Each structure stands twice: as C-alpha cells, then as structure tokens.
Amino acid sequence: MSNIDPLLRYLLHPSGRKIDTIAETSIKVIAATSILTIVLIFFFVFKEASSLFFPGESHSTAKTENISGSSPAEYNPDGNAPTEYNPDGNAPVATSPSGDAPTEYNPDGDSLALGPAKTETSPQPEPEKLSLFENLFSKVWQPVSSVPKFGILPLIIGTAKTTVIAILIGAPLAVLAALNITFFVPRKVREIVKPAIEMLANFPSVVIGFFCLMDVATVVKATFDLDFRLNALTGGIGLALAVTPIIFTVAEDALSTVPQSYRQASLALGATEWQTAYRVMLPAALPGVFAAVLLGVGRAFGETMIALMATGNAPMMSFGIFDPSRTFAATIGAEMGEVIWGSEHYNILFFLGVLLFLFTFTLNAITELYVKKKLMKKFQGS
Questions:
Q1: Where in the numbering of this chain does the ABC transmembrane type-1 domain appear (predicted)?
Q2: What letter does residue 216 receive in the DSSP assignment?
Q3: Which of 87, 133, 271, 362 is the most exposed place for a label (fewest CB within 10 A)?
Q4: CB 228 within 8 A of CB 157
Q5: What's the pLDDT at 159?
Q6: pLDDT score at 222
Q7: 3-state helix vs strand vs coil in the chain, percent to 5
C-alpha cells in the first residue's frame, strides 16, 4: 500500500503533474506554430501578388539588375576586345581577300550562285500594349510573346467548367452512396465498404491523373467521337473521382448523427425505408451534406495534378465541355517553375494564387456562417 500512495497523490493532485503542464504547453506551441505558418504563407502570397499593383523596389530591381552595366557582357580577363575564338593563339587566317567576313558557309570554295536579292519587308507595327487591368480581363493567356498577354477569363471559364462537371458527377453519386451505406446496407458490409471508399480520398492525385490520361480519355473520345482526347469532360471526370470520397465521408458522418427516433417514427407512420431516408433523414442531415458538397467544390477548384494531366491544359475561351481547358491551379503548377523571379508573369501567378485563396476562404465562410447557423436552425430547430 505504501507503494501506491505516491501514485494516488500524483493522480489526485493535478497541480503536481508536471507532465500535464508539459503536454498543454506543447499543444499550445504546436497550435500557435500552425497558425503562424498559415499566416506567413498568406502574407507571402499576398506580398508577391501586391507587387503587381504596387511595384516596389524588389520588382524594379529584378527588372533592371541586368541592364545596370555592372556585369560584363563577355568574359575577357586581359581587357582586350576579342574578335574571334582562337584557342591555339595562331594568327587568324584571312577569310576573304577583301578582308570582309564571309556572308555564307562554303567549305568547298566554289563560287555560289547567288539568288535574287532579298527584298526588304516593311517592319510590322508593334502591337499595342494594354494596361494591367485590360490585360488581366482580356481573352488571351499568352505570357510568352513580344507583348505578353495575361487574360484570366479563359482560366476562370476552364476552372468553372471542370469544377461544375466534377460536382455534377461526384456529389449525387457520393450522397446516394452515403444514403445506401447508412440505411440500407448490413453492418458487416458497411464496415468493409466504407473504409474502402474512404481510402480513395488518400489516393495520390497524380495516379488519378494517369488513369484519366491513359484510360478515361480514350473512353470519352470513343464514346462521343471527339477530336480531342483531353478536354474539360475528361478532367471533370478525374476531379469527380477525387472529390467523391470526400463528399461521401462527410455526408455519411452527417447522416449517421441523425437521431434514430426520426427513422423509427417515420417507419411507425407507415413510410417505406426509401421514403424515410429521402424525406426524413436526408433533410435532417442537410447542413452536413451541404458542407460536404462545399468541401468537394473547394477540392475540385484547387486540384492541380489531375487538371494538369487530363484537361488538355489549353487556355481556350470556350464553354464547351468537349474542348480543352486550363484551370488556375494547373497554370500555377505548369508555369511557376519556369518564370523569371520578380517579373510581371511571376506576380500574376501569385495573383492567381490569391484568387484561389479568396475562393476557398469564401466557401469556408459560407459553410460556417450560413450552413451551420441558418440550415441547422431551419432543419433541426436549434
């Protein structure tokens, strides 16, 4: 008994349990670090995008560092102006009696029959450079050209098309699957099927992208007799495969939390199982189901690899689902690795990231402020 007394005193006196204090402090530090990391990421993205509208010192420095004259144009340690490449140090051989540089490559030394003199073409007028806002809201995304074009309208349409297709396919399928698993499938089958579907949420998106690139695209092209294998429909199907497990998991959890008394009362009044599930249980769980669909929208809107591999990756100003398209996330993923740091293109890619963040933040705000408060009060009476 004497050995147990110290343990009892330790358990019954929380003030003396140092391990609890250490655990609480660790949790607070980890939470504060997570919040600080998220804030710093948002600050970094906004800062890089703000250089587009408020060009500062870093932006102007990046543009002018190569034309300031500080770096030599050629490597010349002796200070003499080299005229030709001559590693042996011999005197250069005259290439022409007149001392002029040859105008054409002629290793045989034969005289060449000169063709008609080339006619000089009149210089083409340079295209008019648009202002920043006119450029952003134009219909062409062509960042690599003499006059770069950064029209985001094709990207908005491409992102909206693939997201809508993914939700139209994935949301009904996921909700019906959740209804079936919750109310119609035996418990033993549910314990096998539910984890299997939830495992799909952990699938690497690049694997789904490969599947769409090699198989789904072929089936879609053969079914609809299309000209393009990769298009918005193929990308939407790939995104639907990614969002369906997410919507299913959250919707199934929402349906499982509805009190069984609702179901028993409906069945006691003579309703069938399907009528009970569709007209009683689903409306009671509608806030959770709606939140699940919004989570799926956010995932489809921000998905990168599947959109990059399955949509055709062409910024076309077209609303057709059979035409190739390009999304915000795919544009950032494809071009950020090759862009010049501090350039206008660089800042616009961060501006696309800001738009992605604002869209996701708006979805979360709608979920918190409207779904959890308005719909719960309406359907649950709380």
A1: 152-367
A2: I
A3: 87
A4: no
A5: 93
A6: 92
A7: 65, 0, 35
Residue 97 phi, psi dihedral angles, 5° rounding: -55, -35
Instruction: Find how far residue 31's CA is from the centre of its chain.
Output: 26
Q: How many angstroms separate the most distant Cα atoms in the chain?
A: 115
Please report the pLDDT score of residue 32 as a whole number: 94
Residue 368: Cβ within 10 Å count: 11
Q: How many of the other CB atoms lie within 10 Å of CB of 178?
A: 27
Dist CA 75 CA 65 (whole Å): 18
Structure tokens belonging to residue 8: 């009892």
Please say whether the beta carbons of 236 and 166 come within 8 A. Answer: yes
Contact 200, 296 (CB under 8 A): no
**DSSP three-state, residue 74:** coil
Q: Do residues 28 and 35 make contact, with C-beta atoms less than 8 angstroms apart? A: no
Does residue 322 contact residue 224 with C-beta atoms inside 8 Å? Answer: yes
The answer to whether the CB of 300 falls within 8 A of the CB of 162 is yes
pLDDT value for 70: 45
150 DSSP assignment: E
Tokens representing 290 are 């709606």
* Residue 345 token pair: 């293109």
- If you search the block for the tokens 């994935």, which residue do you land on? 170
Can you read off the two tokens belonging to residue 108?
């045989």
Tokens 């959250």 -> residue:
250
What is the CA angle 356-360-366, rounded to 5?
A: 145
Q: Quick check: 195 and 337 in contact, CB under 8 A?
A: no
Q: 325: which strand partners?
A: 312
Beta bridge partner(s), residue 28 = none
Question: Kind and range of the H or E element at 141?
Answer: strand 141-142
For 171, the token pair is: 């949301």
Which H or E run contains 149?
A: strand 149-150
Residue 156, SS3 per DSSP: helix
